[in-house]
Amino acid sequence: xxxxxxxxxxxxxxxxxxxxxxxxxxxxxxxxxxxxxxxxxxxxxxxxxxxxxxxxxxxxxxxxxxxxxxxxxxxxxxxxxxxxxxxxxxxxxxxxxxxxxxxxxxxxxxxxxxxxxxxxxxxxxxxxxxxxxxxxxxxxxxxxxxxxxxxxxxxxxxxxxxxxxxxxxxxxxxxxxxxxxxxxxxxxxxxxxxxxxxxxxxxxxxxxxxxxxxxxxxxxxxxxxxxxxxxxxxxxxxxxxxxxxxxxxxxxxxxxxxxxxxxxxxxxxxxxxxxxxxxxxxxxxxxxxxxxxxxxxxxxxxxxxxxxxxxxxxxxxxxxxxxxxxxxxxxxxxxxxxxxxxxxxxxxxxxxxxxxxxxxxxxxxxxxxxxxxxxxxxxxxxxxxxxxxxxxxxxxxxxxxxxxxxxxxxxxxxxxxxxxxxxxxxxxxxxxxxxxxxxxxxxxxxxxxxxxxxxxxxxxxxxxxxxxxxxxxxxxxxxxxxxxxxxxxxxxxxxxxxxxxxxxxxxxxxxxxxxxxxxxxxxxxxxxxxxxxxxxxxxxxxxxxxxxxxxxxxxxxxxxxxxxxxxxxxxxxxxxxxxxxxxxxxxxxxxxxxx
Amino acid sequence: xxxxxxxxxxxxxxxxxxxxxxxxxxxxxxxxxxxxxxxxxxxxxxxxxxxxxxxxxxxxxxxxxxxxxxxxxxxxxxxxxxxxxxxxxxxxxxxxxxxxxxxxxxxxxxxxxxxxxxxxxx
Lengths: 595, 122
Hints:
The complex is a heterodimer. Chain A has helices at 14-39, 51-60, 62-84, 88-128, 148-154, 158-162, 173-184, 226-247, 266-272, 276-279, 293-305, 350-393, 402-432, 445-456, 458-461, 478-494, 528-533, 556-566, and strands at residues 4-7, 10-13, 132-137, 143-146, 189-197, 203-212, 217-224, 252-257, 260-264, 310-318, 324-336, 339-348, 440-444, 463-467, 473-477, 501-506, 514-520, 570-576, 580-588. Chain A is α+β, with helices and mostly antiparallel strands. Chain A has 5 domains: 4-128, no CATH class; 132-231, 2-Layer Sandwich (Beta-Lactamase), CATH 3.30.450.20; 249-348, Beta-Lactamase; 354-429; 440-588, Histidine kinase-like ATPase, C-terminal domain (Heat Shock Protein 90). By secondary structure, chain B is of the alpha/beta class. Chain B has one domain: Response regulator (Rossmann fold, 3-Layer(aba) Sandwich). Chain B contains 5 helices and 5 strands. Chain B has helices at 12-24, 35-44, 61-69, 88-95, 109-119, and strands at 4-8, 28-32, 49-52, 79-83, 100-104. Chain B has a 5-stranded parallel beta sheet with strand order 2-1-3-4-5, with helices on both faces. In chain B, α2 packs parallel to α3 (61-69). Classes of the chains: A alpha+beta, B alpha/beta. At the A-B interface, α12 and α13 of A face α1 of B.
């Protein structure tokens, strides 16, 4: 190491000081010898003496060496000119010598400088780079020499390393074996990435390169790639996971930048019918149905700039087979290569839409079938009913006995029942299609109930009590409420034996939100298990539950239930077997919105 | 002279029935099995009322009604749609035609009589 001294604020190394003195000494001596030689006319090699300071200075201090050469030249020229003036030949010779001084000084400076720079470069590599260097014996693996950097990497001191075989430093047997294989190949190895073990037996990624020196020694450089490799591994892991998620996603995923597709997953390829290569780099607008293009562009533009994931929107896509598919888009803004991009999830809904359409079509066809069937069933009823009516109209004229008349009357009743069932079937199918609207009006409940009783002739079949406030007014679809009450009275009469007692009661306070109209009978009653089934359309009801004797209810209660539901209300039933049933209609007093 | 009631109906059993019922009610039935012929007959000798089936070929009841009211200028001629077709009631209401009524098949003798009396001019 150099020692330093300070001379009037300048910190000078001793070496430099000594060299400066040597140069000064040579310079002065050369000048004096030259002066003396010229004075005495001694024609010897005196100018060559100046090469001592010039070479010395140029070698150690390439830049300043030129100044020294300059100074020497000036001194030599001054002396020569003084003595040879006006001898032109002598002056010319002196000038040539001076130029030579400077040229030699410059040349030496130049080459020295070049050597110094490259040397400095190499030195800095070894001194400051994190390269560890280790020399080991290729047979015993004993470490002959290791530098500080190598020790620091693994957490060992240089002394500790000198007692450890190099082969023991590998993290596991696998890596050790790979090392043996490489070493055994006898070649120079460059960039062998492997893991060594630290003192704490932690894995440490290194890049090894080695070459054989003389004897059995191997010189191995060890570059610390631990941080880099760890980061790469983590990134790879992260990327792999991300890739796995997107590649296997059942929804289409594309990344779009400047309206161009820069990534697509297999689901989107399958959806669009295009291969990945066909899609990447292409403008998305090539795949969007032209009518939706402006909207899609606007949506993606917005998605790119908005900091939040954008909500869904529906578009039509053109596939490779020129099919139009409907899809829902969800997008998230992301940065791709530092530029804004949009990650778009594309969910194919065309299948769903198609199924929806199919179901709608099927329902429509089913209703069409029901409608035709009803027509076909009704038409033959007309002659039966008409002829029976005709006979009953004039029993005497047709010579009917009382017994025949009774039989024909029963036939007529059956025909009428069949007509009703067909009508209900049709009504239910229309209700099912949701094409029925309510026709709201305001009417007196008392008047309506009396009208139903009169028309249905119920007063003759049962003892009916009505407890309805005379001024009670409903706001509802009068025809539908008529049908509901009528079917309840009809059931009350049909499922009871004389003496029949039916009570129609209104119970709702002024603070109550619903009208509540109850119809109570003393009929057969309904068991708990059958309660739900009686409101089911007959094709849906469980025949086990729906006892044979309730079959005649047909669809009337299903229709009643639908009608009341359309009003925003409901029907409740309270029943005891062999005692009777109470059906209560609950309808909101205020017409619900949309009803 | 008995009022003439035209029955346009492609179902033979119903035509036969209507002939008997109408005669019994004291009307003169005119029985026709398709709409085009019915229109010709109307032009020749208009009846007092038409009982019109809907589901028929080559023209259905609605088409015949349209021609009757339009080309044939029979705006006031009473027509009773006589049909087993569902939804006919709603379709009819849309037309808002005062001389148009409906009888849903199967119709009872009593209902037939009431409807005829209501729609026929005295």
